């Protein structure tokens, strides 16, 4: 795949992901009549299902990272060339903000407005560390043992992580930045974003270190001439 | 597959799809005691699960479009002969109305009665554009890279789209027309249907253009003598 | 597989299925505080998930019918020898009642007590016709085109059918009889059972006729020497 | 895989499993405003989805038992060497307590505090017997017929079992011990733990006996030189 196609896929995929997260949060909060558990359940199911579709539809093009932490971890493992890390991250962030604006447009909200949702403190930072640690672990573990199933494993993991962390598991620096521009159910105060991102990167580093020991890298020739693109952790079910 | 079998599959599949959407909406509204979030959650889960079953059971016959926007996009990509577009769309619409009547019969409602549910305005039209854009993107992306998984990707996408769009994602002109004949949870005023359909077709055109660039068409001989029927975006898991 | 193993699988599978349906209904009603939509949603998710597990764990032994209507349809298609129809149905019914008793034991209820839940009238009979028609259609369609995926398609279909029919989709004569012995959420008055069963058998007959035309039978040698047992509509993903 | 990697996988996997179960229980109870059905539904969906991810990410390393009852059943079937049973169980228990502490840290609770949640009596013991019987049955049935699908079958089974048993289906001695150290939604009084564990082991023994008869063991050479590790009941989809 050409780099232009891959960057388009990352931008578009991250945009739709944010549209799903923020849009379903708005819908859920409006309809739930104040029952936050029901609202978060709807937000969770929409996000998990959306991730299945998005990773399946974009995975074979760009690897379907949609997440700077994933791109950094893949580059660390030499699955993504160092020269492509910055372009990947830039388009992910641009896509994320575009997706927030798209969602706001669908619900008649301003394109961007800073969140007032407080998300801070050690419990939430620890939550983001754990959430990102687990996400990177799922990706490394599955992509090194059964890559065709990774899209389902990632979506299932995030579905669980919305509930087992007190932060509802952002686990993604681009998502964190863009959600700071949405004063809705899914928002986070801009001032709280850096703490989340630091915790996410620490969780990414810990998971990459541990899981690369746990799953030794496949032999180099496993991808030579193969059909798996670099960084593709969402390979198709029907390919060997 | 003969054309008669394929048209039967499209009519029957679209009928059951509408029975699922409208019937589960009626059940959800009756039981939910006014909690619209719970009602929409039940409607969503029923629709997503129903789509999995329907695309799997009819996909290898007709491609399991159940949707004029999908048929038009497939014809644009020359996966469906031009001469079959009109028959496909006609039986989809007939099936859709039959499904609404079947659902009404299951809940003791009149066979048809015009909806009074207002669904209009730029936010909802933009929602339908986005919803259909994403649906066509999922279908093109998956059918060109891992077709056996498309049924799950489409169902997951619609599950998410019920929540991340303010229109609850009709994304289907035949469904839109038929839901205008149901004054229930899933209905739409007849006068609002044209706006939805225009937005859906625009989203279809944008997605077909973009995703055909993103995913270059497979080589022509990929389907020569193969087991994949034209327009089949729901190929089976066990076929290579 | 020997007949004794197959009958054990049918009895045990049907027993666990009834334990899931009745047990989750009791739990859901007790916890839901009168919100029937939430109770039915929990009942639905438990049943759908339970069916996935049960068909996967017993499918390669007995075909995982758990349902006299399925056994009759399979015998009609000559996938089950005529001599085995009665034994299959007898153990399904015995298993169904054992499962109801097991569930009652788990919740401290009497082993059996007749239901007072009224389920009758044309709308509900039409619902049972439609529900069983669709179930048999899913089974024939998937087992003739992509058998490894049938367990998921059947479970997804039932998940939808709990909501899009006014009867909550029994679609199974053995289940209907056994639920008459449970005066709980999932029950049905004994006097209402015959109407349901007649509608189910009519739906089965209509679907078997239509779908056998829609999907011509595979050539006879497709199963000669193969790994697919007669009546196995739940073949494994990893087998070709 | 080396034993150190396998024990790390068991410890880490069990830890994340407990973090999911306990953490999502805390979140669900806090948000649900007293509606226990909604809380248990969220707890269920998080646990089921988490299990999918965990078994997929660790299955090819250690078999993804996370459960002394599973390890004992696998050793009984000679899939795990006798000398490894104790190390497996020890790290499972250590991991389970670590996961509870991790969850408590994410929600600002004490690291450990004894549960006051009464779970006792014949109905709940019978529930734990049935729950573990079914779990072991799912694992043996799927791992002997279609191992690549086992992760989904196990997760689906537990999703159902949260609802169809009055105990919410612990079905795991390590999980039972660790949940005794959490005075939250998912807790169990320490004094009630032994009764649960006895019932679980009885259910394990009954299921191992019955299902080993139902599914004759595969021929010895089926794993000689193959890609399936001993005890691996979560083999990948893409492997033959």
From TrEMBL, chains A, B, C, D:
<keyword id="KW-0812">Transmembrane</keyword>
<feature type="transmembrane region" description="Helical">
    <location>
        <begin position="123"/>
        <end position="142"/>
    </location>
</feature>
<dbReference type="InterPro" id="IPR000425">
    <property type="entry name" value="MIP"/>
</dbReference>
<dbReference type="GO" id="GO:0016020">
    <property type="term" value="C:membrane"/>
</dbReference>
<keyword id="KW-1133">Transmembrane helix</keyword>
<dbReference type="GO" id="GO:0015267">
    <property type="term" value="F:channel activity"/>
</dbReference>
<keyword id="KW-0813">Transport</keyword>
<feature type="transmembrane region" description="Helical">
    <location>
        <begin position="38"/>
        <end position="64"/>
    </location>
</feature>
<protein>
    <submittedName>
        <fullName>Aquaporin family protein</fullName>
    </submittedName>
</protein>
<feature type="transmembrane region" description="Helical">
    <location>
        <begin position="85"/>
        <end position="103"/>
    </location>
</feature>
<dbReference type="InterPro" id="IPR023271">
    <property type="entry name" value="Aquaporin-like"/>
</dbReference>
<dbReference type="Pfam" id="PF00230">
    <property type="entry name" value="MIP"/>
</dbReference>
<comment type="similarity">
    <text>Belongs to the MIP/aquaporin (TC 1.A.8) family.</text>
</comment>
<keyword id="KW-0472">Membrane</keyword>
<dbReference type="InterPro" id="IPR034294">
    <property type="entry name" value="Aquaporin_transptr"/>
</dbReference>
<dbReference type="InterPro" id="IPR022357">
    <property type="entry name" value="MIP_CS"/>
</dbReference>
<feature type="transmembrane region" description="Helical">
    <location>
        <begin position="195"/>
        <end position="215"/>
    </location>
</feature>
<feature type="transmembrane region" description="Helical">
    <location>
        <begin position="154"/>
        <end position="175"/>
    </location>
</feature>
């Amino acid at each position: 795949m050409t780099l232009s196609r891959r960057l388009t896929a990352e931008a578009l995929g991250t945009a739709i992901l944010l549209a799903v997260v923020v849009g379903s949060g708005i819908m859920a909060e409006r309809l739930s009549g104040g029952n936050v558990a029901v609202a978060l359940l709807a937000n969770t199911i929409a996000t998990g299902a959306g991730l299945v579709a998005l990773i399946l539809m974009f995975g074979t093009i760009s690897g379907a990272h949609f997440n700077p932490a994933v791109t950094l971890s893949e580059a660390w493992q030499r699955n993504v060339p160092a020269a492509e890390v910055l372009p990947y991250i830039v388009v992910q962030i641009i896509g994320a903000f575009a997706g927030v604006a798209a969602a706001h447009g669908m619900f008649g909200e301003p394109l961007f407005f800073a969140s007032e949702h407080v998300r801070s403190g050690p419990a939430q930072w620890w939550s983001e560390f754990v959430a990102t640690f687990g996400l990177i672990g799922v990706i490394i573990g599955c992509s090194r043992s059964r890559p065709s199933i990774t899209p389902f494993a990632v979506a299932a993991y995030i579905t669980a992580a919305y509930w087992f962390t007190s932060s509802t598991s952002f686990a993604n620096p681009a998502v964190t930045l863009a959600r700071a521009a949405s004063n809705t159910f899914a928002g986070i105060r801009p001032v709280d974003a850096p703490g989340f991102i630091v915790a996410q990167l620490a969780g990414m580093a810990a998971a990459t270190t541990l899981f690369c020991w746990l799953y030794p890298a496949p032999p180099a020739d496993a991808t030579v001439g193969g059909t798996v693109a670099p960084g593709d952790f969402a390979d198709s079910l029907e390919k060997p």
